[in-house]
Design brief:
- There is one protein chain.
- The protein contains 12 helices and no strands.
- It is an all-alpha fold.
- It is globular, with a radius of gyration of 28 Å.
């Protein structure tokens, strides 16, 4: 973000880094620095959690940096913003999101909260929810908000018939107005429903296919790594058998069952010295 205005890419890369660290932790292969800091783990993650909550509350109602710097408690932090970032809030939200995701699994009471069934359901549909919430807001959301009185200049040309169809009072604090919250009674359930459909029809089948492909790719690779190259095959290999110093499938492997059977034979076959090939 100090080179290009790519906060969205930074968020993805930050998530990948956290995922890699979790995988290393599961295998007890984290760098030594993490072992050194382990006695201070609780203090570190509670501090990160507090910082994430503070940064997540960044004033973002204006693009004007002068307005931002005049906000209480943000003057010195405003100088951390990279020159390349146009909408300054995303720089601070990047760090807020990264610290929050890193700290939640390491704070027991927070972890328990996010393990309740409803939150686990949201986790299951989270990727689809991320994909569909934008199109829902751009289509249904624009129309409902225009109908209750939150119209934009573009609505006059795109959806003029929806403007102020059912105007509602704009009572309440900023961001919690009645006319802003009531449309959520329609938008939120509808978005969750579309996300559920997308999860069932697209996300989960895609994950199953990738898992199946990965499993069969590794299985086939194991088979052919055990098979000898053509130049090393000798006459002591009998067709249709596992005899000889190398394993060679007698027929082309066409089905998943064939691949798994020959993999088991290959792994368990031994050479003359009693060593597994």
């Amino acid at each position: 973000m100090y080179v290009a205005d790519g906060w969205f890419c930074a968020l993805f890369i930050g998530g990948m880094l956290l995922c890699d660290l979790d995988l290393l932790a599961a295998k007890d292969e984290l760098p030594q620095i993490f072992s050194t800091l382990k006695p201070y783990k609780s203090y570190i993650f509670y501090t990160l959690f507090a910082i994430s909550n503070y940064l997540g509350g960044i004033p973002s109602h204006s693009f004007d940096m002068n307005v931002f710097r005049k906000s209480f408690g943000w003057y010195y932090l405003s100088f951390l913003k990279p020159q390349a970032v146009f909408d300054y809030k995303w720089f601070y939200l990047f760090w807020a999101a990264t610290f929050l995701v890193a700290s939640i699994p390491r704070i027991p009471w927070l972890k328990r909260f996010f393990e309740i069934p409803f939150n686990q359901y949201l986790a299951r549909i989270s990727f689809s929810l991320y994909l569909v919430h934008g199109p829902v807001l751009w289509t249904l959301g624009d129309r409902i908000y225009a109908a209750v009185g939150w119209s934009k200049e573009s609505n006059a040309t795109r959806i003029p018939g929806w403007i102020n169809l059912f105007p509602l009072p704009k009572l309440g604090p900023f961001g919690l107005e009645v006319s802003f919250l009531l449309p959520q009674l329609i938008l939120l359930p509808f978005t969750l429903w579309i996300a559920e459909i997308s999860t069932r029809l697209i996300d989960e089948p895609s994950n199953r296919f990738v898992h199946w492909f990965s499993l069969n790719w590794k299985t086939a690779d194991a088979v052919f790594s055990c098979a000898s190259p053509a130049s090393e095959q000798t006459e002591d290999i009998e067709p249709g058998s596992l005899k000889g110093s190398h394993f060679q499938p007698p027929v082309p492997l066409r089905r998943e069952e064939d691949i798994r059977i020959y993999t088991l034979h290959a792994v368990n076959s031994k050479n003359k010295d009693g060593k597994t090939l």
